[in-house]
Amino acid sequence: MRRGETRMRGSRKTSPPRMNMAPLIDCVFLLLIFFMVSTTFAPMPGIRVKLPPPGRPSTTKPKGLVLQIADPEPGNPYGIMILNGQVVDMPTLFDRFMNAPQTAKNMLIIQAGRKVLHQQIVEVIDLAKRAGIDKIGFAVVARTP
Amino acid sequence: MAPLIDCVFLLLIFFMVATIMRVNPPFPVDLPRAQMKEEFPRKRYNVYIGANGEIAIDDMLVGTLDDLDRFFAQKAQLIRTLIIRADKMAKHGDVIDVMERAKMRGIESIAIGVKEEAEY
Questions:
Q1: Chain A residues inside the 8 Å CB shell of B46
Q2: What is the pLDDT of residue A145?
Q3: Which of B:10-39 have CB within 8 Å of A?
Q4: How many domains does chain B have?
Q5: Contact B100/A at CB under 8 A
Q6: Are B63 and B98 contacting, i.e. CB atoms less than 8 angstroms apart?
Q7: CATH assignment of the domain containing A78
Q8: Is A28 a domain residue?
Q9: Do A114 and B93 touch (CB under 8 A)?
């Protein structure tokens, strides 16, 4: 009798169990804010380049423009540039590219020495792209392993 | 309360998936400037080349070109466009070495990273 009473009283008092959600939500919000702040959607700017297929160096004379850049002399960060046999410098290079015959303008091949600074290469590519030369290739002068 | 939590969880999962951590290479890299540039989506596995020829993949320093070759052999499938971010004082030969290793491992699309307008 007494036990039954207790059970009755207990069952009357039972309500659905409630979980305290507040700390969980705090935690999730914190994670959310962390990921929102660390996400970067900004794209990376770059210049697309092409390389000749590996393994087989082409023996035929390339049809497009060929720019050769010599290793820079001490004291001058820029190397001497030769475009299809003629010495050119940075200020006149853009005009040379612009005045090149249309057939030659489909591709520029850069043959540069290993010590040429990356800066000079990027400047040349930039000028070429502005002059409408779309494909830029490098003649590979890789270090022999 | 429940819909709010559902919503927050959804956002959380979205940001977790979309997050690509901004990583810095272990050496300073001052990228060259260019006026003509394309935009590439920010992905993992960018190659950095320092002014003295150091090579790093994201924030991991790569000792030799053979290590780089091994890395490309493993991860070539995951790289759609390899962005080579070389310091403007880096040597052209070092850049070409990296390009050639990538090309040998079947990475067809290669780009040279240039300076962002708003560099952080």
A1: 44
A2: 43
A3: 11-12, 15-16, 18-22, 32-39
A4: 1
A5: yes
A6: no
A7: 3.30.420.270
A8: no
A9: yes
Its pTM stands at 0.74
Nearest to B110 among A36, A51, A140 (CB): A51
Mean of the pLDDT values across residues B90-114? 87
Question: What is the pLDDT confidence band of residue B119, given thresholds at 50, 70 and 90?
Answer: very low
In a domain, A89, yes or no: yes
**Residue A14, min C-alpha distance to chain B (Å):** 23
Look up the ipTM and state it.
0.78
B52 close to B19: Cβ distance less than 8 angstroms: no
- Report yes or no: B86 and B95 within 8 Å, Cβ to Cβ: yes
In a domain? residue B49:
yes
A11-61 pLDDT tens trace: 566 788 888 888 888 888 888 888 888 777 777 888 888 766 555 555 556
CATH number, residue B83: 3.30.420.270
Q: Tell me, yes or no, whether B95 lies in a domain.
A: yes
Mutation pick from B15, B47, B89, B92 vs chain A, by most beta carbons of A within 10 Å, is B92
> Please, which residues have CB within 8 angstroms of residue B41's CB and are 6 or more apart in sequence?
A43, A44
Residue A121 lies in domain: 65-138
* Residue A111 tokens, joined: 């043959």
3-state secondary structure of B54: coil
Q: Is residue A19 part of a domain?
A: no
- Counting residues of chain A whose pLDDT is more than 70, the rounded percentage is 78
CA distance A8 to chain B (A): 32
Structural domain range at position B30: 23-112
Nearest by Cα to A137 from A119, A112, A113, A100 = A112
